[in-house]
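Two entries, shown back to back:
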Amino acid sequence: MLALAAGLLLLRWLPALPPTWLFCLLPVLGLMLLPFRSYPLALLLFGFSWACICAQWALDDRLAPELDGRTLWLQGRVVGLPQLGDEVVRFQLDGAVSRHGKLPERLRLAWHGGPALRAGEHWRLAVRLKRPRGLVNPQSFDYEAWLLAQRIGATGTVKAGERLSAAGGFDGWRDGLRRRLLASEAWGRAGALSALVLGDASGLSTADWRLLQDTGTVHLLVISGQHIGLLAGLLYGLVAGLARLGWWPRGCPWLPCACALGFAGALAYGLLAGFEVPVRRACVMIGLVLLWRWRFRHLGIWLPLLCALLLVLLVEPLASLQPGFWLSFGAVALLVLTFSGRLGAWPWWQTLGRAQWAMALGLLPLLLALGLPISASGPLANLLAVPWVGVAVVPLAMFGTLLLPVPWLGEALLWLAGGLLELLFFLLAQIAAWQPAWLPGALPLWALLLCALGSLLLLMPAGVPMRSLGWLLLLPLLYSPPPRPAPGQAQVWMLDVGQGLAVLVRTREHALLYDAGARSADFDMGERVVVPSLRALDVRRLDLLLLSHADNDHAGGAAAVLRGLEAARVLSGEAAELPRRLQAGPCASGQSWQWDEVRFSTWRWAQAGTGNQASCVLQVEASGERLLLTGDIDSQAEQALLTSGLDLRADWLLVPHHGSRSSSSATFLQAVAPRAALISRGALNAFGHPHASVLARYQALPARLYDSVEQGAVRLRLGAFEAGWGLRQEMRFWREK
């Protein structure tokens, strides 16, 4: 069983899938090994082959390259609960058909300013489709892996549409129930109640998510194994309690009835929550635990956990691409390790405290490996929030939902549950203000392994020899991430922020961020991409945040950056156009300074007539190698820069205005004469950047192009005269090439 699980899990680390003929041959080799009793190796091959076949099926279901970026009319059915935002509606469409070609089975679409769609409706839509693609940065959510694990073959933006049929079926009923929940008077926490009852997290605000992340309580407000296990446990305990009191019919054995009722309750809750992958995983684990409790306790507690792991992976091998898979099985394994084999019973308060200690210490290496935030206040927050939500809020929310048909009673219970949640969020806010989440830098493999061993030792019973050695093994947490640049050199990162810009320039003791990405109604590049990436690169403080100008795609994420990191100064070419809270000073020509033998200087066109022309241009020189960051200047600003008398020659040039046709004039490129150019843009962006004529001028220089769409985030060592390196060069089988 362990060999089979290992084969299934190997998929997670594959840089590329093997040829089809090879993973079809592997089961044959496994069968040939069986007569020689090489069962572990044979099962390893079976598991690996099945995982590769499933991954290939998912990759084959992606949008055809010839349809990438095209707008098509298609028809399909809305599945799941659409995420209803203020300005955009996001939803999934199944069974989409179009006369222009075969489409993936499942699409994820966004409709800006669209109507309030309902689950179960059939629509005819005009959609601009894209192949699955995500941003690739030193530290960010792997959107492409998530899309593949969800078996979503394309994303798209809806341009127009018409409803063909009204909502119906189970999905339509769930959507109607959500509307009733969101309309309830629940102290402003109807969105959180919808998340607890239906698994619909779209009602939680960005501030709510940040608070839950800072306190390590995200798992409490999205339906997880904890909620489903709680309901199953309550139903099991109800039958067990009746049997203990002698109130259960003697002719009916109570144990199988308790297990069956508990599993039925778990399935019902799972169906109510949409039966998504995490919920299915929880139901499988609970079902096997109840089966073990009924008939197989003599086999030990680890066997049902291993069976659940195998069953989940056999049904969906791509589950291993999601962090939730590792965290859920890791958490259950830690609880089993903590509470199995202990002599005597612990008081409830000691049990709860021990569980939180095990979670905080045991999941630490896993969180580090997955690059997820670590909440130092998590144990304290969970010590309060777990019983609060599990014992009070969830039962009230469930009973309130069930009793909604009863006049005033269901509403009253939901009102009470909302009040308890409002009080909980207030207390969590106090805890988060004291100790927000911490995102550590990347640790090498040897440090992660030592931390994992140290955590395991500390969770052992008190009598285990050398248990205290675990504290020493945790010392790699203090390990300093990658060495900083040498004096006279600078490390430069052009982050992958889509249609926007964010460039980090770091010397040995200083850090400068040039622009901060865009911010939209439901996605802030500063918060979601820039800050996590800077922290992963061990940047804890900015000496200067330089915003070229006030356009959203350059300055929209600035507020989030300043919330996440301290900045000594903020400068901008359009300081007066930025929000006052940024406290930005003006950028002017002639400003220059030196950090760690690296020279910086700025220029701004004083006669600029537009925001783009007012962009603050930054020149960085390290050991004779130059980088020119140009913001969104156009050809007129380029001409003014040429007549300024500055020496514009540079080895690296940030392509002005993302490659717009109005920039990168031939005279400007001849004066700069770069050997390499950086393009920061979004895939298939609506502006057509970079323009074909602009690309032709760079190719004529010739200059090597580094495009964020093709390379992801790009790193270069200024002062070393080396080629740049893109993160997409780190191959993953699910990444779009």
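entry 2 starts here
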Amino acid sequence: MNTGPQQPQNTMEQNSKNEKLDLHRVDHNNELLTTNQGGRVSNTDDSLKAGARGPTLMEDFHFREKMTHFDHERIPERVVHARGFGVHGYFQVYEPMAELTKAKFLQDPTKKTPVFVRFSTVVGSKGSADTVRDVRGFATKFYTEDGNYDLVSNNIPVFFIQDAIKFPDVVHAIKPEPHNEIPQASAAHDTFWDFVVNTPETAHMIMWLLSDRAIPRSFRMMEGFGVNTFRFVNEQGKARFVKFHWKPLLGVHSLVWDEAQKLAGKDPDYHRRDLWDAIDMGEYPEYELGVQIVEEEEEFNFDFDILDATKIWPEEMIPVKRIGKMTLDNNVANFFAETEQVAFHPGHVVPGIDFSNDPLLQGRLFSYLDTQLIRLGGPNFHEIPINRPMAPIHNNQRDGYHRMTIDRGRVSYSPNSLQNDAPHPAPEADHGYVHHAEKVEGQKVRERSESFRDHYRQATLFWNSMSSAEKQHIIEAFHFEVGSVMDKQIKQRVVNMFNNVDGQLATQIAVGVGADSPAALGGNGVTATSPAVSQENTVKDARTRKVAILLENGFNYPEVTQVMSAFNGAGVHTEIVSKNLGMLTSVDGQQLEVGKNYATTASIKYDAVYVPGGPQSINSLMMQGDALHFVNEAFKHAKAIGATNEGVDLLMASAIQGVNMAGGNTQDQLITEMGVVTVRNVTDTNQFSQEFTNAIAQHRHWSRQNKKQMIPA
């Protein structure tokens, strides 16, 4: 069994990217103010005038430079993936991959290849919220010795369309409607669903989009998929089809819809703050790189086309081989210079990685480069520090906007004799890039392969694979999304379209959106499942989870600190939440500091809630509507809830019903039911802490999903 990458013999590789960027990072502390030309500035508060009340003079070069730069500080935001957040890290392969590919960065387990990763939402503008229902981008730039390699992924393994010529259409449809620029960062409107019902190939992607995958708990708990089909090519020229996967070591976990909506208002930066804080605390997100491999001679052995971007390669059919690990360990120094200016392109490949005839991929190879040219001001965007390769650059390209390289000599063409034909092409033996010699022939036609015509079978496979809770969430998502559509004809067509996926699903959709149920239950006969696509089967881990501890004066200090210590040992974070900020005093005079009050936080920002004992503390909490709401809301969102000793009284006074909790004055039995962990009359909380940690690791407790509460949270 592979134990992971070996430790490198030296740290040159892991530090080289940061050192390269450090050349462009400037610390302005204790420095004198200058212009961009280096001239020192004596006053930056007053413009140069003809008299104290006179007109500003044009000769004020400092004013003009300062204002001109301000006027031009913003660059066009990305059409899609505008809201993003980037981090640095490194990648190590587990073992040499020479049999599959000649890519150098996939050969040496001791080498750390620097990476930069940008996570993003697709639809919203730069100012939209992190937690909207949307696809998430997961783009990785590998700074390899053979040049930059960009693996441009999403957190959903399929896409809306099969051919890139439809990309402007799907984006125009899902973006805010042009007549009123409403709604922002949402698919819940007429134009998008009009596109869906007229484009059956979207069916599979819609199922993923309306699942929990579209509202991740964290970037750290989110898969990434290359979506398109690529090729690996080895030194012998043997090619194989490949799909790429990023697998988070913390598992794949999501928010619930009500929680996601509230977070969009209370903390629109929730995902980026979560990632920043994790890295700042040294809890570095880790992802394993996995590959699915199909031999070229097996290309047509499946009941789906492996080049169709609206299809997955089921992992049970084509296993994912985990070949390396990426660790994200370094936050950016400047958001604009790094995250905003980074440029990804699926055409940035290295020897050993090549393309397939996937028509969505073929169009992306044009679109991404074309986009960078206008966003970043011309063809020299590769010279921006965050985009600059570690490998040396030698070619005859010259000039253009923002040229930073100062090229020596008079030769800028090939072939030439004045410079001995330098720079000259690199032979394949020196890792010169050689495209895979695929035989291509056929008539020029505007049509799609018949093998791309099946739009519903994998959508049904996905539906069949969902747990009952996940199915219920998809139905509720349809109710919100399609229920927001104004055109009744479109609503009915959605029901009719998804009757091709599953008749019961279509019936449930119809009930919630005010449309007619199908006259006859549809479907397509698919009964198979793919357990890998259900989040119920993911890794369950309490590490890095965050627990709110509700306290007031008069709490039990030994009890609280015992539990906090146990959580700390399990990698679980705690934060004390109270009515007011400041210090709280325990029964025995010990003090703890409040981290947040109810005005600055909410249960939606935590993975679990703990209520410790102390009669005075609990009596005070039971008089606070905010504290009761905190518990009720956490219960509604299926989070782990724990209470010890008198803390159980607060849970019993809340709106939680139908859950067995420790009652009476003599009972000391630990009770766990539906993620609610309680115990009375204990001084040793070790067993409670272990049981509660296990409950937190489950992420959510869906068995209580349909339990009633006396009042809505």
